[in-house]
Amino acid sequence: MRMAFALLLAVGGHARATAADCDGDGMRVLQPVAHAATDARAYWLDDALIRWPGQAGEARYRLLASNTAGLRISRGKPLASAMQTFALAPASDVPEAVAGRFAYIGAGATLAIPDAAKAALRGLLRGQLLLVREDRQGNVVDATYLQTPGALDALYAPAGDDSEALGAVPGAGATRFRLWAPTATGVSLCLYRDGASAAIEQLPLAYEARSGAWSGSVPRDLRGSYYSYLVDVFVPGAGIVRNRVTDPYSTSLTTDSTRSYLADLDDPALKPAGWDTAPRPPALASNTDMAIYELHVRDFSAGDASVPQAHRGKYLAFTDADSNGMRHLRALGEAGITDIHLLPVFDFATVPEAACATPSIPQAAADSEAQQAAVTAVAARDCFNWGYDPFHFNAPEGSYASDAADGAVRIREFRAMVQALHAAGLRVGMDVVYNHTSASGQSPRSVLDRIVPGYYQRLDANGRVETSTCCDNTATEHRMMARLMRDSVALWAKQYRIDSFRFDLMGHQPRAAMIEVQRTADAAAGRHVPLLGEGWNFGEIANGARFPQAAQGMLNGTGIASFSDRARDALRGGGCCDSGAELVANQGLLDGLAYAPNARARGKATRRELLHAADLARAGLAGTLRDYRMPLADGRVASLSALDYKGMEAGYASQPGEVVNYVENHDNPTLWDIDALKLPQATTSEERARVQLLGAAFVAFSQGIPYFHAGMDLLRSKSLDRNSFDSGDWFNRLDWTYSDNGFAAGLPPRPDNGKDWELLRPVLRNANAKPSPADIAWMRDAFRDLLRIRASTPLFRLRSADEVQRRLAFRNAGPAQNPLVIAGHLDGSGMAGAFAEVLYLLNVSPEPQTLVLPDDAGKAYVLHPLQAAGSAADARAKQARYRAADGHFSVPGRTAVVFVIERKE
Known about the structure:
The chain is of the alpha+beta class. The chain has 24 helices and 41 strands. The strands form ten sheets. It has an eight-stranded parallel β-barrel. Strands 2-3-6-5-4-7-8 form a seven-stranded mixed beta barrel. Strands 1, 11, 12, 15, 16 and 17 form a six-stranded antiparallel β-sheet that branches. It starts with 18 loop residues before the first helix and ends with a strand.
């Protein structure tokens, strides 16, 4: 076969790649390294400057280079004369942009590379480079590798923005391949007929000096076949290696992601019937019109007997329109849910795609260790994982496909899932995880780092990969990692019609990178694509240490939303990650802080604590807006930015569409479980269900984007599991027959919960914490009524901070308030489709409460029609009373009540 590119000879004289390499080991050492250390304590600032933090500027420095991995360093001795070296001089100036980018590394020796090294830098970076400090006698004092992203971004800046695609692009007359690997000494293409048989060809690619990519074109259409790359590259600690890797831009793969699949995503063979003309819900006018239901693909159908066996746990389960699960989702959509957000559905690393194990769960006591033992025994081999361990960002996960071996199947079936949800009137959101990879370095599950070592991952001061996100952090502050994230989101938005994206640990991304993602996604989709994510501020990038982050308080004006923990913590009590005694003692407004300390609480809350929690709950209802002003418990009338939240400003957002409100999601104990721990143990299951509904009401009535975890509407429990990412189907199950919520299914898995088992045992034995099917059905129906109430008026979906300030006012606020009842008034004057006025009252106490609100005396309030209707699920709400003469309201215990004034035509 003739190839339309030239052969570039490999550097260092090692053997060229052959077809045997395509089927051999995933890594082959071509030239072992002589220098055993791997630390990288110095930095390329750009293509002309180096800094070694903490080192004296007046010392002698040399840059050593080898294209054979042959550098040998002996401290206290002079360098060997045969080494290629470049003497470095102190730099006279550092450009402002460069100094700003690397401000986090601190002061040190800043060095200018000589012209000879600058002219050869592209080649030098493809070999072994060490920075050495010498004493006056020329003896080596210290030596280190250098972190290369600054130089690579400067040298290959065009690659970050060029319009030429990366990855494989098949066409009628040719198939083009392009891989960014600027430090490689050679790249070859391996071609396979299928996902299992031996390679049919191995072909070299050509190096593009301007972009750092390797590319080539095969003069025929290769769609439907498979490929991988052989990348010859220097790796500190290993030497010059030949890595066989999949394509980071793979759009599909074979079983367990061992080979990339050649797909033309416009090919009719990769589309389900009717895809091109299938109806799609229109884009929403505002982020605040969204109401999100967060769902895991496997949870949705793995235990649903109404789904054909072959579809359970798969994409295709969503195409079974008459299944119990799809009936449930349609009912939610009719009530007011607009978007189904799927936990990760890109290719992830931890579920065997061909032969995953299914544990046999023994029948055992509610607090037995036996169930979790069965789950954990096969956790690494079972069919379940949340999927927060990315392998290939642009390809659908294979374990959810009916045939993981055929790369076409997962594409077609993923689209069929989206098409089915759209047909049900539901938009589809996708949970994306660009902040880390499942592995780095030379791990078999590492892709990016085996192609460009040390570039895609974020490194610490010693050159080790940062792991603050729980896995191997990526560096989206680097041009090509930012491009990969941007290109990936655009692909999902365009080719799979994904309507919105939720970014895991978005605070680890630069704000600027997220703004570019928004621009690119909108352009690819031809419509606005809402972006939201976790804006937590922690780790090595906290407080803007490396760049302005896409974190809470840093996204103002972007339209990108972040999750708010302010009201969440006030309502649930404590924080996201409590354990031990605090897991029970830290009560919130929902579970007893305001009225009944449980047996493990520190004592009755002070009035000051109650009032502060109530103010934080109001902050959530007001969209966590930084400039929203209201009476505070300390007597001030001030903005929410003046309200304290754990030493931070409670109000941080500039617009309601920039905030996501929730009291439960896939992380941490479910609301049912946290209340099982914190409510007085004698609380009945019926009353516990009412607490659950109150939590949902706070979310539904808050300005911003409401976000509900799948099964919250069914009193979902994970048997007190605090981190069910690998806890199998048993602890994550959903029951669409509404007969069981999952509570008392045994002690949760030991790895994340074992230290608290003795605390959990008596709770799991508490019969009051196990709901009946009647409790579950009540919650299901009452939750849908809440959604309908939210959808019934635009007053719960205000689009601007000015509108929130003008229309929302809190009654019963300030130092004299009754903190057991949160009351919000919404003014609908001049707003089309709105009630004239809305007054909602949320009573967190088990006892009835009364309020006298003079501002609401003499008005024509009636109970919201949905709560007054005979079909209303919550009969207790009908007991609420309003006396117009003096504005007297009585609210039943643990009840959310909405009064309205109908608009006069």
